[in-house]
């Protein structure tokens, strides 16, 4: 299978690294494009794949085209490659806020379309990507998109109307996680731990908690109860978090980011 990454920026690079690391995809051929010849040269050297600036050639030569340009660049790029798309190809976009309906209009339904929303931990293959299919995409197309994005983390298929919510949760979520790790490490410093050890304690603790939820498949509330010994230390810590309204604050953070994502789409 030939995969073309159209727009080898941060997200495009993350995908290339994930795909390259998988033995399963050893026969997949990767090519990418950038806008400038300079970026193409740099990207090609850094990633060891052919990178050029000819989107028409990339489209013609690829079975799957993963569009990784900025949302504002999406329409012009899609109109440019539209005549070269066919029903036998698959177009996957990672552009925030661009709907499958808009993409189908720009490419005049020449090819099936899937919309995705990955997040930055895809760089270390611990990303979370949500996917929605356009009107011409089949289950087989969706399965292929899942296969590709599973190389950089976990995937979930959602209804497209929930994309703004997913943006507010998993798209923006790494930043919430970093803030929580930073705050916990400040606490570590306050109780006398050296800063480097404090950051490690905080980050590894959240990583372990997240893995417990995913790998054991147990509800987080049940896992929290497991840690909370009657009259122990944890319940005092939890009480302080409830007093500080951590839960409702996190819920509000996701709602605010979701509302902003909706607003940005409406303003385009
Ligand atoms: N970064 C994230 O956290 C994240 C998360 C989820 C989704 N996304 C989505 O991912 C997309 C890319 O984001 P990014 O952060 O990777 O952006 P980025 O680092 O700025 O990369 C954009 C890339 O597109 C290339 N490009 C621009 N116009 C082009 C054209 N006409 N033909 C070929 N290549 C072109 C640029 O090439 P030059 O270098 O030559 O300009 C650059 O390599 C966005 O739509 C964003 O919504 C990003």
Description of the structure:
55% of the residues lie in helices and 14% in strands. The chain has 268 residues and is an alpha/beta fold. It folds into 2 domains: 2-159, Rossmann fold (3-Layer(aba) Sandwich); 171-267, Orthogonal Bundle (ProC C-terminal domain-like fold). The radius of gyration is 21 Å and the shape is elongated. NADP nicotinamide-adenine-dinucleotide phosphate (NAP) binds at residues 6-12, 33-36, 39, 55, 68-71, 73, 77, 94-96, 117-120, 171.
Which key features would you list for this structure?
268 residues, alpha/beta, Rossmann fold, ProC C-terminal domain-like fold, 2 domains, eight-stranded mixed beta sheet, binds NADP nicotinamide-adenine-dinucleotide phosphate
Helix count from the secondary structure assignment: 12
User: What series of H and E elements makes up the topology?
Assistant: EHEHEHEHEHEEHEHHHHHH
Through-space gap between termini: 35 Å
Can you name the CATH architecture of the largest domain?
Answer: 3-Layer(aba) Sandwich
Oligomer: single chain
């Amino acid at each position: 299978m030939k995969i073309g990454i159209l727009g080898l920026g941060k997200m495009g690079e993350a995908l290339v690294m994930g795909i390259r690391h998988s033995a399963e995809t050893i026969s997949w051929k990767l090519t990418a494009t950038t806008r400038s010849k300079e970026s193409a040269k740099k990207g090609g050297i850094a990633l060891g794949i052919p990178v050029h600036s000819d989107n028409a050639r990339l489209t013609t030569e690829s079975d799957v085209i993963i569009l990784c340009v900025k949302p504002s660049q999406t329409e012009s790029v899609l109109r440019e490659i539209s005549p070269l798309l066919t029903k036998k190809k698959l177009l996957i976009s990672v552009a925030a806020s661009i709907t499958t309906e808009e993409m189908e209009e720009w490419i005049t339904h020449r090819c099936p379309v899937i919309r995705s929303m990955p997040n930055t931990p895809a760089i270390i293959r611990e990303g979370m990507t949500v996917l929605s299919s356009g009107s011409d995409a089949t289950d087989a197309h969706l399965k292929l998109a899942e296969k590709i994005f599973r190389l950089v983390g976990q995937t979930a298929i959602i209804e497209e109307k929930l994309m703004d919510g997913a943006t507010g949760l998993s798209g923006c979520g790494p930043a919430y996680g970093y803030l929580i790790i930073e705050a916990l490490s400040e606490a570590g410093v306050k109780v006398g731990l050296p800063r480097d050890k404090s950051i490690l304690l905080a980050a590894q603790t959240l990583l372990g908690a997240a893995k417990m939820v995913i790998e054991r498949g147990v509800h987080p509330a049940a896992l929290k109860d497991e840690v909370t010994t009657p009259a122990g230390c944890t319940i005092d810590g939890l009480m302080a978090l409830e007093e500080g309204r951590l839960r409702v604050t996190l819920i509000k953070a996701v709602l605010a980011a979701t509302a902003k994502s909706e607003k940005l789409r409406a303003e385009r």
